[in-house]
Amino acid sequence: MTSSVPNDLLLQLHNAALSDMHTSRPKKLVRALVYQAEDLTSAAEDLANEHCFTEALQSARSTDQLVEVWRKQLTYWDFATAPEWSDTEERTDARRRAVYALLSLSEGTRKLLDDLIPVSKAEGPVVITDEFTPWYTPQSQQGRPWYWPAYRAYLESKRWEPDAVAGLDVATDTVVERLADPTQGLPYQSKGLVVGYVQSGKTANFAGVIAKAVDAGYRLVIVLGGTLNMLRAQTQRRIDMELVGRENILRGASEFESDYATDPAWSQGKFATFGALPSTLGAFDIVRLTTRDDDYKSLLQGITALEFEKHEPALPLFDPRNLHRSSARLMVVKKNKSVLGKLVKDLRKIKTPLSEIPVLIIDDESDEASVNTSNPAKPDAERTAINKAISDLLGMLPRAQYVGYTATPFANVFIDPSDTQDIFPKDFIVSLPRPDGYMGARDFHDLDSFVPEGERGYSNSNERAHVRDINVKEEDDDDVCLQRAIDMFVLTAAMKLYREQEGGLGERYFHHHTMLIHESVRTAEQRELLIRATRLWWNGGYMGPAGHARLRELFDTDVAPVSAVRADGHAVPSSYDVLAPYVGPAVTRIGGDDKPIVVVNSDTDLETGEADFDKRSIWKMLIGGQKLARGFTVEGLTVSYFRRRAGNASTLMQMGRWFGFREGYRDLVRLFLGRAETQGVKEIDLYAAFEAICLDEENFRSELKQYAKMVDGKPQVTPAQVPPLVSQHLPWLKPTSPDKMYNARLVEVRSPGQWQEPTAYPVRVADLRHNTALWMPVLAGLSNEPTTFSYHFPAERSRPAVTHSFDALVGCLTPAEFLGLARDVRWVTPTQFAPHLVYLSEISTGSAPDVDEWVVLAPQHAKAGQRLSLGGRSGALSWFGRERRRGPLFGAISEPKHRAVPLRIAGSLASPGDHATEALTKPRTGVVIVYPVVEGAHRGDIDALGNLAPEKVAMTFSFVAPATARRSDGRVVRFTTIDSAKEGQAIIDTD
Questions:
Q1: Separation of CA 554 from chain center
Q2: How far is CA 41 from CA 36, 38, 939, in A?
Q3: pLDDT under 50 in the chain at which residues?
Q4: Contact 292, 236 (CB under 8 A)
Q5: How far apart are alpha carbons 609 and 257 in whole angstroms?
Q6: Within a 13 Å sphere around the CA of 352, how many CA atoms are in the beta-carbon half?
Q7: How many CA atoms lie within 13 A of 423 on its CB side?
């Protein structure tokens, strides 16, 4: 096997055998190889055995072509959902063993393949679904797929990892199979929502859904591509390039007549191609009704472009004999009243009966503009008109399917009562997994970090590595912070050029390098910011000693130490002197045209090419507001300078343009954030605000994962029951009309062995005083001296071993005592805690309760200070500084280091070997963790003896129920239906 000829022939042989199995099932490998060898040279017959394969694997590397061919196919089988040939779960060792058994491979070959191609344990999508009739099966699609295989091949040509392609295959299947069968006689409108992450590849998902949907028979695809021209154009180009393809774009016209003639990717051959029009190759064409530069316009030459051809005129269009011989129509339209009005008007004119057309509507950024707002006095009053246009489309197209896409789990499509009649996702909600290589909110925060705060550094703290504070006390402070951010932009530009030259990445690997400066949406303020940033750039002295001195200091104190531990194998210069020769070219690349800054606050910035990432390489600073705040992808974003305030969680998250994929420069990403931004009379820490939102999102996604588990083959939570779950996180989000209510009421949340942390503590003086008095006897009963607890986490993969230690005062409550206290606690929104209270009552009462006692822990600070006199304990109780992050709700209250010990005592974690912890660990024991919280406005009122008025203390607590306190039916939530006659409706009228 030393000659390249046998190696090439072996690759060709295995490629042929695996390709033959791709659309069916794993088959005996040797028999498949022998069969394929007959069509190759006689030498191939000598290679058609397992011994030659094993010998090749023994000397192979994970990147060898033979291994890549097998990786692609094994991953495909690993990810297959409920295949006929195996009853094993996808992405498990059991599935892989089943594949090997069908291939009849020896143990030696199996081990070699496992070492080279480990089983992917990547998470699949989480699906909250109503019951549906399966129709989208391999059998139903046999011989028909065209655009999905082509799209999959395109992604593979872009070097997508097999896991990513297989994951996309699974995720898009979960959407398409829940649409209505386009060939069925009775029309049905399925409506769903797909929740991804900000800048995480949602477009790839809906492009895959479109590909599979048109293959299945959907013949009109309407993509609602945002509210801005630049967003619509960006989406149109992406779909055209990756899915529609050159031949469908040209349709016989000259290459130079294409709307992409001046696009570099067009001339470089980066658009998908089929070799000829698909209709001439036995498939069907996609006819574009919009282009990159032109939104939908009224069709002046009649409505012929929207007319659907029927080969059997007597049969309806949805009959397979017509459907699969008809071209598909595709349009990407802006969410604009006028544009959507033209489309509705034209559809009413066509001869093809609208009731016969299978339609797919994809609504990108569905929580923006699509939902109804009933107050016409608001600045965004046009949203009602857009919502009406979408409703009109759904009303006139009975076979239309609606799929919304958003990155905000708390999208108001869950909440607004009008949506029950149009775009509420009544059939399914799909939560996409976080993709590999994605840099999101979690990568800028230390959520649930195992490392104590005092021991965090660049290697084990995302905040230390990537986040830099903007603290503006004096007027000149903002210039100082902005100058440092611009210096970082220049320095990281030089680092990118260094990696291209010295790190083997090659010239122009980093096609874009950008910095985002985001302070205001007002154009006048953006003009002022442009003047300031321009002055700082030209006075920066980057070619002289002053500039080099600043860059040297920044390199030595920031870039070098961070990249030393986070470069992930990419080149890092040994000193600033080694990097210095690249600073000049970097400065020239950014400002050589005397335009180092681009202001993006109107569509003309895109139309003139100033901010068009598709048409040119951009190494610039960008100043922008709303145009850059939602949906638009800022390519090559490395440094962000963010001081803008936002009024709600979804808006704040959408502004996070620094999320995305940062291949080759992840260690260079820096986020400069305002830590004391003024909002009215309050000061807002934007970093803390982002962290609170991030925690909410993480928790909600985790909850959806629990709720998605089937019970007795049926969903335990349907989409109609999701709104009251969302209200657990955002209690003030309720039906906007007083004569509406949720039809499903959340009755109980069961949480055996799980950390639960209520946040809806009261704001009224009387209620705060009541709660403090309620806890006084508990505090008085705590131990006089603290006990030191610890929990040791051994090293795992990328996480080093760490021990969590803390001191706590200890007490005990009977089940009746804690239940009585929990019932008497007052809340700003009682509905948040009510479902937990039902569970606590269930496990604490009756003839066979599930809890014997509750251990009470009151964590204490290691250092002196922050002490209160409560419960008769003179200056002996630690208090914690926390703020309300979401209206009246607190953000995170507990500290990560406090969680492991209670979880162990309740039976959720293994023994750490700590004597103090084990002494409290007994079966049927729960834990209550008490945190006296003092908000910022009251901390100055604590006197020297630790006295503070009881109404200025929020007595907060977390709890962990015994891990054994579970029910046999496996349900984690329980609902009741208000109006059983309207079961399945999310919102109903009140009497």
A1: 32
A2: 10, 7, 84
A3: 1-4, 300-302, 374-381, 383, 417-418, 603, 605-609, 647-650, 732-733, 735-737
A4: yes
A5: 19
A6: 26
A7: 33
Write out the E strands in 379-427: 400-406
Four-residue CA torsion sign, 164, 165, 170, 173: positive
pLDDT 10s digits, 467-496: 999 887 766 677 899 999 999 999 999 999
3-state DSSP assignment of residue 402: strand
CB 989 within 8 A of CB 747: no
Q: Give per-residue pLDDT as tens, 576-626.
A: 999 999 999 999 999 999 999 988 875 454 444 467 788 889 999 998 765
Q: What's the token pair of residue 361?
A: 């509507």
d(CA 193, CA 783): 51
Measure the CA angle with vertex 727, ends 721 and 729; round to 5°: 125
Helix axes 107-116 and 50-58, enclosed angle (nearest 10): 40
Rounded-to-integer distance, Cα 517 and Cα 470, Å: 13
- Structure confidence at residue 709 (pLDDT): 78
Give the Cα separation of 772 and 951 in Å (integer): 7
DSSP annotation of 181: P
Q: Is 269 left (phi over 0), alpha (psi -120 to 50) or beta?
A: left
**What per-residue confidence (pLDDT) applies to 872?**
74
- pLDDT reported for residue 50: 95
- Rounded CA separation 260/236 (Å): 11
Q: How far apart are CA 598 and CA 788, in angstroms?
A: 56
Helix (H) or strand (E) holding 640: strand 637-642
List the beta bridge partners of residue 859: 808
The rounded distance, in Å, linking the Cα atoms of 783 and 789 is 14
**What does the alpha-carbon distance between residue 892 and residue 759 come to, in Å, rounded to a whole number?**
8
The pLDDT of residue 572 is 97
Beta-bridge partner residues of 813: 854
Token duo for residue 223: 């993509």
Do residues 644 and 655 make contact, with C-beta atoms less than 8 angstroms apart?
Answer: yes
The answer to whether 728 and 886 have CB atoms below 8 angstroms apart is no
Neighbours of 837 (CB within 10 A): 17
Q: Where are the beta strands (DSSP E) in 115-180?
A: 126-129
Element holding 793 (H helix, E strand): strand 787-793
Beta partners for residue 886, in sequence order: 889
- Provide the terminal-to-terminal Cα distance of the chain, rounded to the nearest Å: 81
Q: How far apart are CA 759 and CA 688, in angstroms?
A: 16
**Of the candidates 855, 822, 852, the residue with the CA atom closest to the CA atom of residue 838:** 822
Say how far apart CA 524 and CA 766 lie, in whole Å. 46
How do beta strands 220-225 and 359-364 pair?
parallel
Is the CB of residue 934 less than 8 Å from the CB of residue 880? yes
Rounded CA gap, 213 and 74, in Å?
Answer: 26
In this structure, are residues 745 and 978 in contact, taking their beta carbons and an 8 Å threshold? Answer: yes
- 127's tokens: 């699906």
Give the number of other Cβ atoms within 10 Å of residue 40's Cβ.
15
Distances, alpha carbon 845 to alpha carbons 494, 717, 811, 817, in Å: 67, 27, 21, 11
DSSP 881-911: E--EEETTEE---S-GGGTHHHHHHTTSS--
Residue among 762, 740, 795 at smallest CA distance from 989: 740
- Residues 76, 20 contacting (CB under 8 angstroms): no
pLDDT of residue 41: 86
Q: Return the bridge partners of 988, or none.
A: 741
Classify 756 as helix, strand or coil. strand
Query: Which of 15, 7, 106 has its CA nearest to residue 47?
Result: 7
Output b/e per residue, 274-306; b: 16+ Cβ within 10 A. beebbeeeebbbbbbbbbbeebbeebeeebeeb
- 217 three-state secondary structure: coil
- For the chain, what is the mean pLDDT? 86
- Read off the tokens for 651: 């808006």
Residue 597 in contact with residue 531, Cβ under 8 Å? Answer: no
